[in-house]
């Protein structure tokens, strides 16, 4: 040991890992002493910062590639408390207690695959879940007790488009299921620890239980109809009645009119589908002339719309009535 070391003592590991950082907004960070520049996210309480880079050390390869592992670092204020490597780290999240998660998009192969990881603040692994699917996004509860990971479409049915819920305290997988409302943009765990809310670009957040029970299905349907969502109009008709009647049919007509007003000129399929749905509603209301006009309008835009037989039936019916 040198005279200076004997005089002042050895520098602690924590001091050795104290670094200066420069943040660029809330999503990028520069750590010059580690030759690191990458994405980052912070814990809700602001104490921890998780940084990751999906690229090799030389900075010459990023994104889809066959080699060159990426890096991740966890900082407690300005002290690095964990660091490691994985193939393609992405979608990092960190909780108020320092627990953190990452989606590994994995090196390029002919097969779809991804791995979800959860770590303790010191960097030891809590769990990992390998998917035979690409990974879409994830979320971590503020207290670090729960996490979810959403996969993309895959030929492997078990892992295709599933939202997997993890308990990070026990730890283990709670359940995996396909959200009926589709892939969400963001997620939030309920304060009761029994629900997860899925948020989308349009419409309100929608709650599911941790095992996949859709608590806000009625809200989802009503919101979509209010927006004029053709997919939902079609779905509701198929689920309830082939020819809706009364007030329900009139509500669907109003929703379809709203959809028609928003359809782009370069979307011929939707421009044909909307008149068909209006025709079905008029059919249920027994306004047969209006139904026939709508069916014919849709058929003129899409010859395979599936309404030719009903058009023939209505023409005969109306001819007989004259």
Write up this protein:
With 322 residues, the protein is an alpha+beta fold. It folds into two domains: 3-184, Lipocalin, CATH 2.40.128; 224-321, Serine Threonine Protein Phosphatase 5, Tetratricopeptide repeat, CATH 1.25.40. Helices cover 29% and strands 30% of the residues. It is built from eight helices and 17 strands. It has helices spanning 3-8, 13-16, 217-227, 230-240, 246-262, 268-284, 288-301, 308-321; strands at 22-24, 28-31, 36-42, 48-53, 70-76, 79-86, 89-94, 100-104, 114-119, 125-131, 135-140, 146-151, 163-167, 172-177, 186-189, 195-199, 206-209. The strands form four sheets. The protein has a six-stranded antiparallel beta sheet with strand order 1-2-3-4-5-6, with no helix packed on it. A hairpin with a 5-residue loop joins strand 9 (114-119) and strand 10. Helix 5 packs antiparallel against helix 6 (268-284) and helix 7 runs antiparallel to helix 8. The longest helix has 17 residues, at 246-262. The radius of gyration is 27 Å and the shape is elongated. The N and C termini lie far apart (110 Å).
Provide key terms for this protein:
4-stranded antiparallel sheet, alpha+beta, 30% strand, elongated, single chain, 322 residues, 6-stranded antiparallel sheet, Lipocalin, Serine Threonine Protein Phosphatase 5, Tetratricopeptide repeat, 2 domains, disordered N terminus
Write the layout of secondary structure elements.
Elements: H1 3-8, H2 13-16, E1 22-24, E2 28-31, E3 36-42, E4 48-53, E5 70-76, E6 79-86, E7 89-94, E8 100-104, E9 114-119, E10 125-131, E11 135-140, E12 146-151, E13 163-167, E14 172-177, E15 186-189, E16 195-199, E17 206-209, H3 217-227, H4 230-240, H5 246-262, H6 268-284, H7 288-301, H8 308-321
Antiparallel strand pairs: 1-2, 2-3, 3-4, 4-5, 5-6, 7-8, 8-9, 9-10, 11-12, 12-13, 13-14, 15-16, 16-17
Helix pairs in contact: 5-6, 6-7, 7-8
